[in-house]
Design goal:
This protein is of the alpha/beta class and 441 residues long. The protein has 15 helices and 14 strands.
């Protein structure tokens, strides 16, 4: 007999009402979708390379064969319409105004090159003046820092870095440091032409209050804002109208189940966005970034064409992509708390500043005192214990009891045993008296 509850909690019976069975994906089906993963490895690093289910890989293979079977028919009859379907789905997911604001590119690094290339041209053509400023976070991804060096600094621009300590305790301290950096940039008498802001930083992993920072940029006259959100879609809330940036990019192969490699670049409709160009110049040059990106020469476009199949996959989960995102967050926080309790450490940020990745303090007795130590310990965990997890050396603060953190991810294929395996591996190292000082160079 089915029953519901009044608001006061009293149960009311409905003798003729039957509960509808759910057709959501089962645990066994999830494991089958990811059976191509190495079963000997506790893969706690979805954030680095993402994952792709077997059903989506099968659709990708169909696209690849369709291309190889009759390339001309594929090009003239299928490619453009297929890419438009994928772009339209992304446009709706991220709440862009128009599909022409969405371009599909290989990855967030390509999107970064597109935006920074435009900035470099502005310096070379005299639109920007030598010494004009680009802001970036201290937490910015290493490849983005290199791209700023390659495009902006080489063209005559200057960079102001927003310093951020770790662990981080509140959004307020990020906003406060960002405001100070804006004041520093403007104090030189130059204009701040571009702010590059992460949405979910890579290492250490923190969800940045992008909406607040974009609003601050508008108030302080920062000309344009580019949000590097490589991890965002499928990992945290993404809404172009709410965030309000000029440019926004996110990989689709990290947390959105596409095969590598595909990302989207949102460029808010404006006169400046019409002058964005793909760095690979092909026949479509001058027809708008979305069209330019749809053909950069003969290559495998299948990763960009499977977005409808990904949508079919995520619909098999209760709540779709948003329900999945919330469950991933809740579980990874729970696992993080389990680990720090076992090791007597702490998380690197409050749960509400985490998404599907959490920074977990490692036992100080491991003696992780450098980036080299962190990398070597990561290698040992992989080779000796079958645990794949990145490790972040947080620096040598004198009052720090924890010098390094592991970044654990949670995606739908992860099981409790994965995190227990990691816990047991660290406990074994501690029991054995291991320290990173024992590692050879």
């Amino acid at each position: 007999m089915a029953s519901t509850e009044h608001q006061n909690g009293d149960a009311v019976s409905h003798p003729h009402k039957k509960l509808k069975p759910t057709n959501f994906i089962t645990d066994a089906e999830i494991q089958s979708e990811f059976s191509h993963h190495d079963p000997a490895v506790a893969r706690l690093n979805n954030g680095a390379f993402g994952c792709c289910p077997a059903s989506v890989l099968a659709v990708q293979r169909d696209w690849q064969l369709k291309n190889l079977r009759q390339p001309d028919q594929f090009y003239f009859n299928h490619l453009k319409s297929g890419l438009l379907r994928s772009r339209t789905i992304i446009k709706d997911l991220v709440n862009a105004h128009h599909v022409d604001e969405i371009s599909l590119v290989d990855n967030a690094s390509t999107a970064t090159a597109i935006v920074l290339q435009q900035a470099a041209w502005a310096f070379h053509e005299g639109t920007f003046q030598k010494g004009d400023v680009v802001l970036m976070l201290h937490y910015a991804y290493g490849a983005v820092k290199k791209a700023i060096e390659a495009y902006v600094v080489r063209a005559g621009g200057s960079v102001v870095v927003v310093p951020l300590r770790f662990p981080v305790t509140s959004n307020d301290e990020i906003v406060r440091e960002f405001r100070k950096a804006i004041e520093k940039g403007k104090s030189r008498g130059n204009r701040i032409r571009l702010a590059v802001i992460d949405h979910v930083t890579s290492m250490p992993s923190v969800v940045i209050p992008v909406k607040e920072l974009v609003t601050l940029c508008r108030e302080e006259g920062v000309e344009q804002v580019f949000v590097d959100a490589a991890h965002a879609i499928g990992c945290t809330r993404v809404d172009m109208q709410e965030i309000g940036a000029d440019f926004y990019t996110s990989n689709l192969h990290k947390w959105f189940f596409c095969p590598p490699s595909v990302a989207f670049l949102y460029a808010r409709a404006s006169p400046k966005s019409r002058d964005l160009h793909h760095p690979v110049v092909s026949h479509e040059y001058g027809n708008g970034l979305a069209v330019e990106s749809s053909w950069t020469g003969n290559r495998d476009y299948s990763a960009q064409l499977v977005v409808p199949a990904v949508i079919d996959f995520v619909k098999r989960f209760e709540g779709g992509i948003e329900g999945m995102r919330k469950r991933n967050h809740d579980v990874v926080v729970e696992m993080g708390k389990m680990l720090v309790e076992a090791w007597g450490t702490h998380l690197g940020s409050p749960p509400d500043m985490s998404a599907s990745m959490v920074m977990v303090g490692l036992p100080p007795c491991l003696g992780i005192m450098s980036d080299s130590h962190a990398l070597k310990l990561r290698t040992r965990l992989r080779d000796e214990f079958g645990v794949e997890v990145p490790i972040y050396f947080a620096g040598g603060e004198e009052d720090a009891t924890v010098t390094a953190y592991a970044r654990i991810s949670r995606q739908v294929y992860n099981k409790l045993e994965d995190y227990v395996k990691f816990k047991d591996a660290i406990n074994q190292l501690v029991t054995d008296g291991f320290t990173c000082a024992l590692l050879s160079d």
